[in-house]
Design brief:
By secondary structure, the chain is of the alpha/beta class. The strands form 5 sheets. The chain has a 16-stranded parallel sheet. Among the domains are: about 5-130, no CATH class; about 145-325, P-loop containing nucleotide triphosphate hydrolases (Rossmann fold), CATH 3.40.50; about 330-405; about 420-510, Arc Repressor Mutant, subunit A (Orthogonal Bundle); about 760-915, Leucine-rich repeat, LRR (right-handed beta-alpha superhelix). Helix 16 (about 355-365) packs parallel to helix 18 (about 385-395), helix 22 (about 440-450) packs across helix 23 (about 460-475) and helix 29 packs antiparallel against helix 31. The chain contains 31 helices and 28 strands. Helices cover about 35% and strands about 15% of the residues.
């Protein structure tokens, strides 16, 4: 894990120091020596990722090397800080230098030489390089041992009794349907879910059913795991197939070559309908390597694979395929599974005095069957509430030290150990957020970039690489995607409680990060990252933490508190300061001296203004003041030339009115920020609209207070932004027109477009928005029918129309072939909605709100075969009556889940409003 800082340090040292080396005698050798040492440290620490230390001495040794790497980073950052102090020392310091004729590079010489010598001395204080970076001993639990234990546990699922399982019947019937449905083509069924979610148990229970056994001629079950030898898999398949039909297994398998094994396997399977289970698949190349051994004779053969990775499950295998995503147990199912054998002396019924603790412990498992079963085994021997409370309050310790829970950690660690060192650090960083916290995608991306975790990929922005990291963690079931955007990409994630416990345990052992509840005075710690989590807003004073890189605060109850009590002293090397939702009313003056600060988050705080000298934060990359009380930026903001993300709009809280977002006033020189990727949202004043066109790196732009007279300048600026993906424009009031006709062609990569303001006509360039996935028109009040202009947009997946049309009829007569999400809100005159057969074939979500003249459901809604959710708000009583049982439209929506509950809820609200 700590190879990440050494990898980054190599580049940092070379770029910082080597640029000066040519003018400073004797420095080149030191730079080369340090580079060599750090590269060796990097290789050593990467090796430790694959070969775990087996003795305490080795663990201590690895920790020392890791800490030394972090100390080197401190020295380099300190050097940069001192250089910054010298350069910004003020007029008197610069006058003094000129007066006494200090040689230009003398200060640099002394400082660089001093820092280099310190680094070299620290490294040479440890033994010779060969001994320092030798391989770790082979004693202790090896990776192979872990895989053998996991394989044993997986295959034991074949012998589990059905009466010991919970919530499996419906899932089993689904799988059996795919296995014996009569389809003649070879078919692959992928069962996907996080480690311990019951994938193998479900497949094993299906695999052993007599109905399934009778349907196939032969069977094989092999556990693949992360490391496998293809020839060994072939040998296992041959053995399993022969045994399944009670044939003698060939005795010379181990002497056979790859070609001979493949010939034997394919010849055996000719004219046989076979069923194969490939359990615990981690790499899609397995299928490419093994597919030749499974001939397709068009007689209904089936292959089941289980995996933790969504990308493998959804892979195009080149044959018929189905995906079954395992859902974690519901609350009642989890309780039932836990109760079985957890209370043997009470006939498996939870005694009343233990019930609150038992269900709190079950909640910790978040529906993960592996954890529930392991915990019930541990708790079956606990009799008193004191014993139960002890386990509940020290679950993290028990995961690492109690043999009965060892299986949980082993299973979850397999996913963690399979990550690259960069992904490991990104994953561990997520544990800094509180339990069950919803982590926004963009927030994670900006934090990871500020920390330096993101790999440099030529031609790709760090933001794009970081988004791939998130998708990888979700795909591997390390993070759970709670919200997704219109294209299916994660928008917000959270960690399973036990995954978080694992991350906290690993963070502590690696000195990566510390989570602190603020109840005691914190003692000195070695971790570079600190998360304060408190429920009462009170945080005890913290000791000096000059080495801290990340400081995050999470306050549940926003009680007034002084930020000076929250911020530790001496944070000169801090990179991240995240105070979102904290009761902070004013930033202390010390913040502007945080030279290394890359990320400053003041979202949803009561702060009213930023320091005038904020321009001193030369390295700042992200400034987030969204939904704070800051209404104008200081002039110094224009000096933040490294700023990439400036988020500063405010939601007004107005539900059905026109103004729902307010921008922030920026100084006239804000357009000097040429590296800005995100500017959302700036209020239009002066020449902002004309000059914003010079910010050609923008991918997201929001401008409020746009006026009719801005049309030419606005369209000219947009035309220059070739990288723009997300555009939001809003006029000052509902009577102002938003004019965009001068735009000849929109940016080619525009994905999201939101326009708030009156449109006299549909912009003629709408038809060319080929990359658009989301369109939001707010208060447009078009008299012209919009739909013919956008129905052919193949990428459009989300359409929101809010008071966007003044007509009485809305007809979806063609196109919208990939639309998934449709909202129609606040149409005062609309009384008829028509959906032709074949239009919007993929629509899953439909909302009708504040369309009081609509008396019935849209004509043709029954054609929307993929519709899952119908959401109604402020609709007519006639419409509600039409969809309740016995109503004229009930048959059209009765297949939708909870439609009756929806009607009852809306009628309840209607009756309440009348009374």
């Amino acid at each position: 894990m700590a190879s990440a800082p050494t990898d980054l340090l190599i580049g940092k040292i070379v770029s910082i120091l080597e640029s000066e080396a040519s003018s400073i005698a004797g420095v080149r050798d030191e730079v080369d020596e340090i580079k060599l040492e750090l590269e060796s440290m990097k290789s050593f620490l990467e090796d430790t990722e694959r070969k775990k230390a087996s003795t305490q001495g080795e663990k201590t040794w690895i920790a020392n090397v890791r800490n030394l790497a972090c100390d080197v980073e401190d020295i380099i950052d300190e050097f940069m800080y001192r250089m910054y102090e010298k350069e910004s020392g003020g007029r008197f310091a610069r006058f003094l230098q000129k007066t006494i004729h200090v040689p230009k590079n003398l200060w640099y010489k002394r400082r660089i030489a001093n820092k280099l010598q310190k680094i070299i001395a620290a490294i040479k204080a440890i033994p010779e390089r060969k001994q320092r970076y030798g391989l770790i001993g082979q004693e202790g639990t090896s990776s192979d041992d872990v895989h053998k234990r996991v394989k044993t546990k997986a295959e034991s699922s074949l012998f589990e009794k059905e009466d010991e399982l919970v919530g499996i019947e419906g899932k089993k019937q689904m799988l059996m349907g795919w296995l014996i449905n009569g389809e003649k083509k070879q078919t692959i069924v992928s069962v996907v879910g996080m480690g311990g979610s019951g994938k193998t148990t479900l497949v094993a229970n299906t695999f052993t059913q007599e109905t399934v056994k009778r349907h196939f001629n032969c069977f094989a079950w092999i556990t693949v795991s992360q490391t496998y030898v293809l020839e060994d898999l072939f040998r296992s398949l041959i053995k399993e197939f022969h045994q399944s039909i009670k044939q003698e297994v060939p005795g010379n398998l181990h002497a056979m070559s790859y070609r001979e094994l493949l010939d034997m396997l394919t010849n055996f399977l000719v004219s046989k309908r076979y069923l194969v289970v490939l359990d615990d698949v981690w790499d899609i190349t397995l299928w490419e390597n093994i597919r030749l051994s499974f001939p397709d004779e068009l007689i209904g053969s089936r292959i089941i694979l289980t995996t933790r990775r969504e990308d493998i499950a959804s892979y195009s295998f080149g044959v018929e395929s189905h995906v079954y995503p395992i859902q974690l147990l519901q609350r009642d199912e989890a309780k039932e599974l836990f109760s079985k054998k957890a209370f043997p002396t009470y006939d498996n019924i939870c005694p009343p005095e233990l019930e609150p603790l038992a269900w709190e412990l079950v909640e910790k498992c978040n529906g993960l069957p592996l954890a529930i079963v392991a915990l019930r085994g541990l708790m079956s021997s606990k009799k008193s509430s004191v014993e139960w409370s002890t386990v509940l309050n020290s679950l993290n310790w028990h995961l690492s030290n109690n043999p009965l829970l060892e299986s949980i950690k082993i299973i979850l660690l397999l996913s963690f150990n399979g990550l690259s060192y960069r992904l490991k650090r990104c994953f561990l960083y997520c544990s800094l957020f509180p339990e069950d916290y919803l982590m926004g995608k963009n927030r994670l991306i900006r934090l990871w970039i500020a920390e330096g975790f993101i790999e440099h990929v030529k031609g790709v922005t760090p933001e794009a690489v970081a988004e791939l990291y998130i998708m990888e963690l979700v795909s591997r079931s390390m993070l759970q995607a709670v919200r997704r955007n219109e294209t299916g990409r994660p928008r917000a994630c959270k960690m399973h409680d036990l995954m978080r416990e694992l991350a906290l345990s690993e963070s502590a052992s690696e000195n990566f990060a510390t989570v602190y509840d603020g109840k005691e005075v914190m003692k000195e710690m070695g971790a570079r990252r600190l998360s304060i989590q408190t429920t009462d807003g009170e945080i005890k004073p913290l000791t000096d933490m000059s080495h801290l890189r990340s400081f995050l605060v999470f306050v549940t109850n926003r009680i007034s508190s002084s930020v000076s009590e929250i911020l530790p002293s001496g944070l000169k090397l801090l990179r991240i300061l995240d105070l979102e939702r904290s009761p902070v009313t004013k930033l202390p003056d010390e913040v502007v001296y945080l030279f290394n600060l890359r990320y400053l988050n003041l979202r949803k705080t009561p702060i009213k203004e930023l320091p005038k000298s904020i321009g001193r934060l030369h390295n700042l990359q992200t400034l987030d003041i969204r939904d704070s009380n800051i209404k104008a930026l200081p002039r110094g903001i224009t000096k933040l030339l490294n700023l990439r993300h400036l988020i500063m709009y405010r939601y007004t809280g107005v539900h059905k009115g026109f103004r729902y977002i307010e921008g922030t006033k920026g100084p006239s020189g804000i357009c000097k920020l040429k590296n800005l990727q995100v500017l959302a949202c700036v209020e239009s004043e002066g020449n902002v609209i004309r000059l914003v066109g010079n910010m050609t790196q923008l991918t997201k732009l929001g401008i409020t207070n746009v006026k009719e007279r801005d049309e030419i300048d606005l369209c000219a600026s947009i035309q220059k932004m070739e990288l723009l993906q997300d555009l939001f424009l809003m006029v000052p009031d509902e009577e102002e027109c938003l004019r965009l006709d001068a735009l000849t062609a929109p940016p080619a990569h525009l994905h999201k477009l939101a326009l708030a303001g009156k449109l006299e006509m549909v912009p003629r360039w709408f038809f060319s928005l080929h990359s658009l996935t989301s369109l939001n028109l707010h208060w447009s009040r078009l008299e012209e029918d919009l739909l013919p202009h956008i129905e052919a947009l193949a990428s459009l997946r989300s359409l929101t129309l809010y008071n966007a049309y003044t007509g009485e009829n809305l007809s979806f007569s063609a196109g919208f072939r990939n639309l998934v999400h449709l909202q129609l809100c606040n149409f005062p005159l609309l009384n008829n909605i028509t959906i032709e057969r074949g239009v919007m074939p993929k629509l899953q979500f439909l909302m009708l709100d504040s369309c009081l003249e609509v008396k019935t459901l849209p004509w043709g809604i029954e054609y929307l075969s993929n519709l899952e959710t119908l959401q109604l708000g402020s609709v007519s009583v006639q419409l509600l009556e039409s969809i309740q049982e016995g109503g004229v439209d009930h048959s059209k929506v009765r297949h939708l889940p909870e439609v009756d509950d929806l009607v009852r809820t809306l009628f309840g609200r209607f009756n309440e409003s009348k009374s």
